[in-house]
Automatic annotation (TrEMBL), chain A:
Domain ABC transporter: 1-255
GO biological process, one term: L-valine import across plasma membrane
The gene coding this protein: livG
Organism of origin: Cytobacillus kochii
Transmembrane regions listed in the UniProt entry: none
Coiled coil: none
InterPro entries (UniProt xref): AAA+_ATPase, ABC_AA/LPS_Transport, ABC_transporter-like_ATP-bd, BCA_ABC_TP_C, P-loop_NTPase
Name recorded for this polypeptide: High-affinity branched-chain amino acid ABC transporter ATP-binding protein LivG
A single Gene Ontology CC term: plasma membrane
UniProtKB/TrEMBL annotation, chain B:
Swiss-Prot/TrEMBL keywords: Amino-acid transport, Cell inner membrane, Cell membrane, Membrane, Transmembrane, Transmembrane helix, Transport
Organism of derivation: Cytobacillus kochii
Membrane topology recorded in Swiss-Prot or TrEMBL: Multi-pass membrane protein
Protein name: Branched-chain amino acid ABC transporter permease
TM region positions: 6-26, 60-78, 90-112, 132-158, 179-206, 226-249, 261-277
UniProtKB/TrEMBL annotation, chain D:
Localization per Swiss-Prot or TrEMBL: Cell membrane
One Gene Ontology term, aspect cellular component: plasma membrane
Organism: Cytobacillus kochii
Main location, first listed in the record: membrane
GO molecular function annotations of the record: branched-chain amino acid transmembrane transporter activity
InterPro entries: ABC_transp_permease, LivM-like
Highest taxon above the source species: Bacteria
Keywords, alphabetical: Cell membrane, Membrane, Transmembrane, Transmembrane helix
Pfam family, one: BPD_transp_2
Protein name, entry field: Branched-chain amino acid ABC transporter permease
Automatic annotation (TrEMBL), chain E:
Biological process according to GO: L-amino acid transport
Pfam family, one: ABC_tran
Protein name: ABC transporter ATP-binding protein
InterPro entries membership: AAA+_ATPase (IPR003593), ABC_branched_ATPase_LivF/BraG (IPR030660), ABC_transporter-like_ATP-bd (IPR003439), ABC_transporter-like_CS (IPR017871), BCAA_Transport_ATP-bd_LivF (IPR052156), P-loop_NTPase (IPR027417)
Family: Belongs to the ABC transporter superfamily.
MF-aspect GO terms: ATP binding; ATP hydrolysis activity; branched-chain amino acid transmembrane transporter activity
Domain ABC transporter, first and last residues per copy: 2-234
SUPFAM superfamilies: P-loop containing nucleoside triphosphate hydrolases (SSF52540)
PROSITE patterns: ABC_TRANSPORTER_1, ABC_TRANSPORTER_2
Keywords: Amino-acid transport, ATP-binding, Nucleotide-binding, Transport
Length: 263, 291, 372, 313, 234
């Protein structure tokens, strides 16, 4: 049992109209790993996240989480099974407070019923209190407690990105998917983000799969890297292997990048 | 039941819906506003045509041109006064304003001339042909012909001319359109002018074909035209045409089968069924939000 | 706890306050407006002549948006806030029914100019609404007259009925027509409906045509009937058509066209071509006040409602005691109005004779008179 | 945090009791007449309608413009229960509400898959279908309508209003309400956070329909007659206007605008010629100069909060 | 060529630019760097007329362009490639390029389209494709090509490398240099990727919370310790 991968993707694919956005996608992630997914623009990275989270139903292949087949489950059930994500273009609940954003993600772990809330039974108060405590604790970890009553849309960009990760964690995932978490951040901010990702992995005993174009980040923290191009895997391996893989250099990195990234 | 006759009836009715829906869908396509006042512009067109014919003794075509011109002006005025300020606001705010404008025009009109109906004079003689046992009136042929021609013209304007390209650019992204040097206000005004002049034309045709016009005449056809536009895929010009015809034929067939009281219900049932199976209308692309 | 004090209402200074609860906006605004025009003409005349008992009439006009809830509200406002002694309204039976209980409870006279449904004055449970009256026929009467005319005068056997289903008036007429006509041995070969505000009737007409009726009864209002007649004739339906007072409007002729209207008949309260003095002076005065237009049935009924109240007040010798006025109203006898010589029966309905008219090249021509 | 909310709750209860008795006293002593009481009842009905639609549009973000359909169901069903089955009025109200909620489910389950304008037109269509069904049932009078005895009183209207507001406020301020709001804010993200969006959309729709049905029962038993024409799309627009004018997402906004507009509309009855012109002009001007609605997304209590903070410091 | 003096820009109550001044000379590449929310995009939007400054002067070729409509500014020769590309997604690549030349009345539009295709051969391959279906890098090329179609004298580029694959970033930057060299187009470049930006620019400005905090030649900035720490990742 120990050897069963947390996530196993078997020849998954999807087409839009005639376009095969992803095909023959294989992926195996074990408990506790931190994996990178890279590839040129339009390679199908975000689409593969959408497959994993039930936003799109794969037209071929299978997806298993801890041996349970996920194909065809709607996103909210996939989340309850243990995969949660952030979005390439931030999707916060803009007009909700920071705290409520996190509470929403706590939703499916709370038990109190609609009736108990409408009648304001004790179970409602207990349930809400518990949600609130848990959420505040998360915000504290992400250094967002001081802005908990702000509306999400009023946060600066960097805090919005962090809030999105906090929110995803509140859903209690085993596997966390991050789609370009460092997009639009400068090197310093990116550096802080790397620390944060490492930290939450330890703290929450998480498995993480992330998409990123910033090679400093990817090469810096990922243990293994998958490379997609035109919807297909072209390489898989350790950061050093990927960095020197000619196919990857041709399709994605460009010739001199190895020297640049060190700079 | 006389199938051919009913089909003819349905297409005549449907082409009126189509004519109104064309303008509707055009405006919607560009600024995504359900312009409830469209029905009232249609009403104004009918009355302007009426006054031109009955009051000033003009012929059909001059009356049609005047009505279209006045309605174009009305459309631009409505946009300028009521919608432009709301461009940055929620769409629902614009929708409520549109409902407000629609009521305002109706009752301003009633205030000045009363609610009683008016009868259109017969300006073009109406002949009836007998084809395959069905009676076809020359007027309904004319209306169908006009809608088809206008549809083609509109399609041409939107897809082939410079102003059409500007319209499409504005509809996708107003700020980016500005950066191309497109004058967004002018473009939207032009859209309203074209859409409203179509409504005006529809008003005159309606008056000639159905004779009766009254200040609240825009309400139901306005709603039906909206339904037709949604049915065809909102914002899509040929969709409005087809949606209008489908609606007309469905209504006629249901009445023809003796369920005239269920006619509107049937139209809505068809609409809902189409939306459920093809949520963006007959011609709409099922564009899912890209995640 | 109402009624006790409002019986003395209506007398503020030396005017007679009468409410008008009408459809001035919404779907049937044109009916309400027609009644209002008639009322205003009558009030002008009466006030110029020195009013009732020396008191001027003051009309408090309220709009009920063609909506029953608003009509109730408006009636409560008229009785409670404006203290009117009587209300004229509304154009449709439903909106009148909506105020009937308010009138009873607050002891205010309610006179409906054109609410023709029997349940305006007599409730569904058979009880009489003490304070509620009307100026118009009730539906069954006109339907009966039309059926007898078709069966006896025109001698037709197979007929179709094409009724406005959104109007209780038209439905009432259709029902009584059917009953009487079938009792007389006739056959209804097609029964179809339309809904007010429709403009395209061709599909149903096609259906009626294929049933081959010898005569079509079309109860409804002129706005739609005009189009039905026009479209029917265009489709080659040339059998006689018949309707009722709802057809009576000069607009009908404009909408349908004089030609199409040939070989059509209506039952009506009166004929505007009738040389009768009351009628002619009404038509003239109406034209003078409303720049040349000629009155329709709503105008005439609104006008008559005011005179019916005036007559009752004079006989009751009170312009303020609603109880006395309603007693006087229920004793109305042989009162000459534009829409006929009326007496009120025990169900508070006016008994008046109906006239059958035929359209000839756009003119109404007197055909027969039928007494109830 | 929680104690504050509890305080607010008791404040609401006490305030309601005061309002209720104040009106009751005024009516008993003749300070206000029947007309005023009737207007207040009408206001209660309109607030219930506004608040119930607020749950669907303002909270859950589902653009439904066919609310009059559920009003009609509640009105007719409750009228049948009292007039034909001779059951007591409170039972009629509840049955009316339940049938309206079931109708809400039937309408909501298929149509809530649609978005934006397509949802709007579908709900409008359903409402018209409901209306046409009543128009064609002769047992309820068809077009002529159905006579209904007046049973709605200030007390019954106020109790219904109180319960409606309480339930909707309690629902909104719970994890369930937050789930609905998250759907309004970003449906895709809500889904990704484990919210069963279909369930909550339909639930909000059904609850909204339930209270619209209750309002329908009060409505039917207040105006002596119900007719299908009363429940056309213009009625739906009236309710929609309450919600948008008050500020989408603001319950107190919906309440305030329902009160204001009912008063404005009633007041304008006496100016029949210009009534609708003024009404529509008010509507246009408010939207042009306050497109976010009277209160925006704020609640009236937020305004007090800010003031008291300022005053306190 | 462009001279900005003490402009203040607000979004409602938010004071986004506080007395910003800067200068761009003819033929230069000038870069503007700064953290998220510093106001870089706001500045570009103000220059191209999408936003109106509350105060301050903007001189373009010795004429004030404050308060001018965006379309007038485009005609005067300033093209803006907005953040996030903003291509007209339901229109084809070629239609997008044609729109870029919207303000032009001359007959050489077709010729210029060919020139853009030479610059971006990838766009030529996809000229009939709806631009919404292009990949991010392709869309960025399209956005730049579209801006060039207006024959601008001054090109404003807002984070052209955002979200692009490393190989695309390189391509885009070399194209920027090419545009500058072959057409002589002056370029004001906003970038997060300070390293790359400074490597092609002549001069740079650093913006922080709505204020210019540092300015100098690209070389100086690259060597400044503060910059290295904050924007070049040590
Ligand atoms: N809903 C959709 N409909 C049609 N095509 C789609 C859809 N979603 C994605 N695609 C297409 O699938 C391909 C892969 O897109 P995807 O967003 O997964 O790329 P990506 O690898 O995430 O790129 P980037 O790094 O630019 O984000 C693209 O060509 C895209 O246009
Ligand atoms: N439409 C808007 N409404 C309100 N505030 C805005 C708006 N756009 C930007 N802002 C605010 O103005 C400030 C400057 O934003 P701007 O987009 O110019 O930053 P930037 O430097 O371009 O950042 P980035 O690197 O994220 O693109 C930020 O605080 C931002 O929150
Ligand atoms: Mg992506
Ligand atoms: Mg920016």
């Amino acid at each position: 049992m120990e050897n069963q991968p947390l996530l196993k993707v078997n020849q998954a694919g999807i087409s839009f109209g005639g376009l095969k956005a992803v095909s023959g996608f294989d992926l195996e992630i074990h408990q506790g790993e931190l994996i990178g997914l890279i590839g040129p623009n339009g390679a199908g990275k975000t689409t593969s996240f959408n497959l994993l989270t039930g936003v799109y139903v794969p037209t071929e292949g299978d997806i298993f989480l801890e041996g349970v087949r996920l194909n065809g489950l709607p996103p909210y059930q996939v989340t309850r099974k243990g995969i949660s994500r952030t979005f390439q273009n931030i999707r916060l609940f803009n007009d909700l407070s920071v705290l409520d954003n996190v509470k929403v993600a706590n939703h499916s772990r709370a038990k109190h019923s609609m009736l108990s809330s409408i009648l304001r039974l004790p179970s409602h108060f207990n349930g809400e209190k518990e949600m609130e405590d848990k959420s505040i604790e998360l915000l504290r970890i992400f250094q967002l407690e001081h802005v908990k009553d702000e509306l999400a849309k009023n946060l600066p960009y960097g805090q919005q990105r962090r809030l999105e990760i906090a929110r995803a964690l509140a859903a209690g995932p085993k596997l966390l998917l991050l789609d370009e978490p460092a997009a639009g951040m400068n090197p310093q901010e990116t550096h802080d983000l790397m620390e944060l990702i490492r930290f939450i992995r330890e703290k929450f005993d998480l498995t993480i799969l992330l998409i990123e174009h910033d090679m400093n980040l990817v090469m810096g923290i990922c243990e293994r890297i998958y490379v997609l191009d035109h919807g297909q895997l072209i390489a898989e391996g350790l950061p050093e292997e990927i960095r020197s893989n000619p196919k990857v250099i041709e399709a994605y990195l460009g010739e001199e990048v190895s020297s640049d990234a060190q700079g | 039941m006389d199938w051919i006759q009913q089909l003819v009836n349905g297409i005549s009715l449907g082409s009126i819906y189509a004519l109104i829906a064309l303008g509707y869908t055009m405006v919607y396509g560009i600024i995504k506003l359900i312009n409830f006042a469209h029905g009232e512009v249609f009403m104004i067109g009918a009355f302007v045509g009426f006054y031109a014919i009955a009051g000033w003794g003009l012929g059909f075509f001059p009356a049609l041109i005047i009505a279209m011109a006045v309605c174009a002006g009305m459309g631009m005025l409505i946009e300028r006064v009521a919608y432009r300020r709301l461009r940055g606001s929620t769409r629902i705010a614009a929708l409520i304003t549109a409902i407000g404008i629609s009521l305002f025009i109706q009752y301003l009109f009633i205030y000045f001339r009363g609610a009683q109906p008016e009868a259109y004079p017969e300006v073009i003689s109406n002949q009836t042909f007998n084809i395959l046992g069905a009676q076809i009136s020359s007027q309904s042929l004319m209306i169908l012909g006009t809608s088809i021609v206008l549809m083609i013209v509109l399609q041409f304007i939107v897809h082939k001319t410079k102003i059409g390209k500007a319209m499409r650019a504005v509809s996708h992204d107003m700020d980016a359109a500005r950066l191309m040097g497109i004058n967004v206000n002018t473009t939207i005004s032009a859209t309203f002018a074209i859409g409203s002049s179509l409504a005006g034309a529809a008003g005159v045709f309606f008056g000639v074909y159905y004779t009766k016009i009254e200040p609240l005449m825009g309400v139901i056809p306005g709603l039906k035209a909206f339904v037709a536009a949604v049915l065809g895929g909102i914002g899509i010009i040929p969709g409005a045409m087809v949606g209008g015809l489908v609606l007309g034929v469905v209504e006629t067939v249901v009445s023809g089968l003796g369920y005239s009281l269920w006619r509107d219900a049937a139209a809505f049932v068809i609409l809902i069924l189409i939306l459920l199976f093809k949520p963006s209308g007959i011609f709409g692309k099922n564009a899912r939000e890209k995640v | 706890g109402c009624g006790s004090d409002s019986a003395g209402g209506g007398e503020s200074g030396d005017t007679v306050k009468i409410g008008a609860n009408l459809e001035l906006s919404g779907a049937v605004a044109s009916y309400g407006e027609g009644i209002a025009e008639g009322i205003e003409l009558a009030v002008d005349e009466i006030n110029k002549d020195g009013g009732i008992d020396g008191k001027e009439i003051e009309i408090v006009k309220v709009d009920n948006k063609s909506d029953a809830a608003e009509a109730t509200n408006a009636a409560i406002k008229l009785t409670e806030n404006d203290d009117v002694v009587a209300i004229i309204g509304s154009a449709t039976s439903g909106n009148t029914v909506a105020q009937a209980q308010v009138a009873n409870n607050s002891e205010t006279v309610l006179l409906s100019p054109s609410g023709t449904s029997p349940n305006v004055t007599v409730n569904d449970d058979g009880s009489l609404n003490d304070f509620v009256f009307r100026t118009s026929f009730i539906d069954p009467f006109q339907g009966t007259v039309a059926a007898n005319f078709a069966a006896n005068e025109l001698g037709v056997k197979n007929v179709a009925i094409y009724a406005d289903n959104a109007s209780d008036y038209a439905k009432g007429l259709a029902a009584s027509f059917k009953e009487t006509f079938e009792a007389a041995g006739g056959k209804i070969v097609a029964e179809e409906s339309y809904v007010a505000k429709d403009t395209d009737f061709r599909s149903t007409l096609t259906r009626i045509k294929s049933a081959n009726p010898e005569f079509i009864f079309i109860p409804g209002y002129y706005e739609e009937v005009g189009l039905i007649v026009k479209q029917g004739r265009e489709m080659g339906i040339d059998v006689p058509l018949m309707g009722a007072d709802g057809w009576d409007s000069p607009k009908l002729v404009e909408l349908a066209g004089g030609d199409s209207l040939n070989n059509t008949f209506i039952t009506n309260h009166y004929s505007s071509g009738d040389p009768d003095e009351t009628i002619q002076s009404f038509v003239t005065k109406f034209g003078e006040k409303y720049n040349g237009s000629s009155p329709d049935a709503f105008n005439a009924l609104g006008y008559d409602s005011v005179y019916m109240l005036k007559d009752a007040m004079e006989r009751a010798e009170s312009t303020s005691d609603a109880k006395k006025i309603k007693d006087a109203l229920s004793e109305t006898k042989d009162l000459t109005l534009v829409t006929g010589i009326i007496s009120v029966d025990e169900d508070h309905n006016p008994i008046k004779s109906a006239t059958v008219l035929e359209y000839k090249d756009g003119e109404q021509v007197f055909k027969t008179k039928v007494n109830p | 945090m929680n104690t504050k909310k509890i305080k607010g709750f008791w404040l609401f209860v006490i305030l309601s009791i005061i309002v209720y008795f104040a009106v009751q006293m005024a009516a008993n002593t003749g300070m206000i007449n029947n007309y005023h009481v009737n207007t207040l009842v009408y206001i209660c009905i309109n607030i219930i309608l506004a608040v119930s639609l607020h749950l669907v549009i303002g909270i859950t973000g589902q653009f439904s413009i066919g609310h009059a359909g559920f009003l009609a169901v509640g009105a007719y069903i409750s009228a049948i229960v009292t007039m034909k089955l001779s059951l007591p009025f409170p039972i009629a109200l509840i049955i009316g509400g339940i049938v309206a909620a079931l109708t809400g489910l039937i309408v909501g389950i298929p149509s809530l898959r649609l978005r934006g304008d397509y949802l709007a037109i579908a709900t409008l269509g359903f409402a018209e279908i409901i209306r046409i069904i009543f128009l064609n049932i002769d047992a309820v009078g068809g077009a002529a309508g159905m006579q209904v005895t007046k049973m709605t009183t200030w007390t019954s209207a106020f109790i219904c209003l109180f319960i409606t507001v309480l339930v909707i406020v309690n629902f909104t301020n719970s994890r369930h309400g937050r789930a609905c709001i998250s759907i309004r804010e970003n449906e895709i993200a809500a889904d990704a956070m484990g919210i069963n969006t279909t369930y909550y959309k339909v639930a909000a729709f059904a609850i909204g329909s339930f209270f619209a049905g209750i309002a329908g029962g009060l409505y039917a038993h207040n105006f002596y007659i119900i007719q299908p024409v009363q429940f056309g799309f213009l009625k739906s627009f009236d309710i929609l206007i309450f919600v948008v004018l008050g500020g989408l997402g603001s319950l107190s906004g919906a309440v305030i605008s329902a009160i204001l507009l009912t008063i404005v509309s009633t007041f304008l009855q006496s100016y029949p010629e210009t009534r609708m012109i003024i009404y529509s002009a008010v509507l246009i001007l408010v939207m042009l100069y306050r497109p976010q609605g009277l209160l925006g997304t704020k609640e009236i209590t937020d305004l007090f909060k800010r003031k008291s903070v300022k005053g306190g410091s | 060529m462009l001279k900005v003096d003490g402009i203040d820009v607000y979004y409602g109550n938010i004071h986004a630019l506080k007395g910003v001044s800067l200068e761009v000379l003819e033929g230069e590449i000038v870069t503007l760097i700064g953290a998220n929310g510093a106001g870089k995009s706001t500045l570009l939007k103000t220059l191209s007329g999408l936003l109106k400054p509350k105060q301050g002067v903007i001189q373009y070729e010795n004429q004030s362009i404050v308060g001018k409509q965006a379309q007038t500014i485009v005609k005067a020769g300033i093209s803006h490639v907005p953040e996030g590309r903003r291509v007209f997604s339901n229109m084809t690549v070629e239609e997008n390029l044609e729109l870029g030349a919207f303000v032009r009345k001359d007959k050489e539009v077709q010729k210029d389209i060919q020139k853009v295709y030479e610059l971006f051969p990838r766009l030529f391959e996809r000229k009939g494709q709806l631009s919404g279906t292009l990949s991010g890098g392709e869309q960025q090329m399209l956005a730049m090509g579209r801006a060039i179609m207006a024959r601008p004298k001054l090109l404003l580029l807002d984070e052209p490398s955002m979200g692009l694959a490393p190989i695309m970033v390189k391509t885009i930057f070399s194209i920027i240099e090419e545009i500058n060299e072959t057409n002589g187009t002056t370029i004001l470049l906003v970038e997060q990727n300070a390293h790359m930006a400074l490597s092609i620019a002549k001069r740079g400005y650093v913006l922080e919370t709505g204020k210019v905090v540092l300015t100098g030649s690209a070389k100086d900035l690259q060597e400044s310790d503060e910059i290295r720490m904050a924007y070049l990742g040590g």
